[in-house]
Amino acid sequence: MTSLMKNPLAVGSGLLALAGVGVYVYQLMFGLGITGMNNSTSWGLYLTCFMFFVGLSAGGLIVASSASIFGIKKYKAVALPAVILSLVCICCAGICVLVDLGGIQRIWRMFTGLNFMSPLAWDMIVITCYLVINLVYLYFMTSSKADQSKVAVVSRFALPVAILVHSVTAWIFGLEIAREAWHTAILAPIFVASALDSGLALLVLALFGLRARGVFDTTDELLSSLAGLLCTCIAVDAYFIGCEILTTAYNGTEGGMAVINTLLFGGTAPFFWFEVICGLIVPFCLLVFAKSRRNMKVVGVASALVVVGVFCKRCWLMFTGFAAPNIVGANGITLGTTAAQAGGAADMWTLLGTYTPTAPEIVLTVGIFALGVCAFTVLCQKLLKK
Questions:
Q1: Of 14, 217, 228, 299, which is the most buried if we count CB atoms within 10 A?
Q2: How many angstroms separate the CA atoms of 35 and 359, rounded?
Q3: What is the C-alpha separation between 310 and 240, in angstroms, rounded?
Q4: Per-residue pLDDT reduced to its tens digit, 46-63
């Protein structure tokens, strides 16, 4: 405990996490009206981060399990930190869902009233299974050497479940027939591809941090190899996005062109172009050459750009889907916000709702990220050997 108190990263992230807890208590007192969400944009920053964390988690576990399944010995060296990272990220994803629930006191209905025809129910089931597999995987990996055979068995289940967990998350959006920007069969492959590159990029950054702290040593040769794999994942991710944009734009339908215009020139354009240029093109160009992959600073910069780029992808994917209302009524849309309730008709009705995260939302989200950093730091310090 004393050594952890001397770790500025653990202390700083812990304090930010406590600030997030305080804001969550405030949100429980006054409801989700303190957020920027409304009837027009009913999913906001919390569920954007949920998508992001699920991808980060799935990517880490895919790397760890693939090392065992396909016998890639050099990747087995980083399997344990990858599993720790995966566990922390899936817990943060679950927290994002919980803080998004306005009626947290009715959470028990998730278990007693499941609608098995709903992708939301599928997601809850598969994430629960995924969390259990992470815990079992971590237990066997930190046990005696006699349990290493069990690690190989668990990895056989971990790989398909890791792919499935992000596919089911994608189906929550992709099966929404009323949302033109989401309703596409390629959304699940896009989610899995982005999980691979973002999870792998975060693992590389975590390995750099652990090495700098002297907690876990990783050779430059291994990091260079991971960077080569990351470059391949970036290319696959870019290919899927290109397929989706081309198919939507080429048909020229009214709904499709509305999506394309919003994505390329509208409110979500900054997120889209940052992801394409800084999250895909630049990292690929940096890592495609073997000489660049041997430069650890270049690898670190490319990995950071990939992680930020995928977060921007989650933003443009989420909010492009809300760009046009499902039904345009005579009076518009009732926003249902706190301001609308306190104001007059002009504040109550709008033709098209907008969304901007409020300060409480941002602080609470930062608190969740900080909690993840703190948990990862503590677990690595306890479980990893120098």
A1: 299
A2: 8
A3: 14
A4: 999 999 999 898 877 887
